[in-house]
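We modelled the chain as a single entity of 463 amino acids. Its sequence is:
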Amino acid sequence: MPSPGAVEGWRRFVYIRAKPGVAVQHAGFMKNFLRQHWGALFLSVIALSFVGAQAFLSAHRTTTVKHLYFADRLTDAHRMLIDEYNRQHEGHIKVIPIDFPNADFTTNERKEILARFLRGEGDGIDVFAVDVIWVQRFERWSEPLDQYFTKAELAGISDEGLQSCYKDGKLVAIPLGLVRGTLLYREDLLRSLPGGDRIIEKVNRGITWEEFVKYGETVRPSFPFYLFPAAEYEGLICVYNEVLQNCQADYFKIHGFDFDTPQAARALQLLVDLVQKYRVTPQVVTSMTEVSSYDYFRQHNGCFIRGWTSYYRDFPEMTEGKRTIRQAPLPRFADGPPASTIGGWDLMVSKFSSEKVEAIAFIKFLLQKESQEVIYTRAGYFPAIRALYEEEAYRVKYPELTDISQMSTHGVHRPSHSNYTKYSEILAHYVSQAIRGRLTVEDALHLATKDINAGKVLLTQGQ
């Protein structure tokens, strides 16, 4: 069942965006209905509520002040920048945020809500943020952006950021900020364990999975040794992607979505063994998303956790004092290259928006050096523009950005494909089943490949 915060948050959203009388009716229905149902029905009701409000919304856009609706997960950085933009354009443009709190929505739920809403072809959202891997899917509802950005403007954006922003050679998105997968550890706890100081040195240099597992089995701490999100969702695929591309660089360029391979089996076997064989990871991770894994890490004094480089914004209370969190390269197999999944958020403009020019102006504001500095310091996202990595003033102010830039060589993308999200959901299901011990590694990967291929056939037949 969705959390009370999720129900209440979306009840308020429908109320704001619809006629008052209709809104209350929608809210009451949704609240009671959602207490009994979940999944696709939950998303469908939300999407239909949004679509039903569009006629009213369009009628109310003819005011003197133009309203620009921006959908994203709001951080302190978002709030600061939206307030500043509204101050600069007071009386002319007002950005109205639509929040997707991490505590209420997984990335999968957020993706489906946005998709269902945009299918309605209403202009209730102007600018929306998408996971870097969603761009291919959302391109059908987005405005092509080539005409709005000069070559000089695009040259100022990092190559790593722009890599996810094209579909069939067309620019359809602009990066807001990037993150990468990382190993986080409690330095204070690790130093309290036998050989902890020595392991910290190895971890910071880049420890192998073999060394990492052996140490966990040896010390057997009373607190959780290693956590990673293993629920059936995209976060699990980010973890699997790292281990997979550590087994074979450019796996998806070579094999596509075929997982009946020794490399795919080796990668999944490790994740299964962490839980089922070595028991350095508790079984409870199979129900954890990123947010719940972080909560468990806090509450149970976890030692290591797979997280993102924006960690110091996710653990603000644990980066100072006695409880100290550090980050290090993710473990890797000794015979494979380091790999860290590239994540982050891109911005797209709805093709149904009636305020496209204003939407582009807002995006360009978010790409300014001052804005990107706020996004880096207040949201924890790596800057999407070159200036913060290259200009001397910023290099002196943020020396760690030099290391971040160098570490980009270890970053690995998930495959860019218009049906990636469908294939990822299939893979996540079977990978999760294997980690739970319900399927063998070989069966899980065989079934995943079979279902993906069956999906390809159905998609082809439907064209």
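As a brief sanity check on the tokenised model: Residues 340 and 411 are 5 Å apart (CA to CA). The two ends are 36 Å apart (CA to CA).
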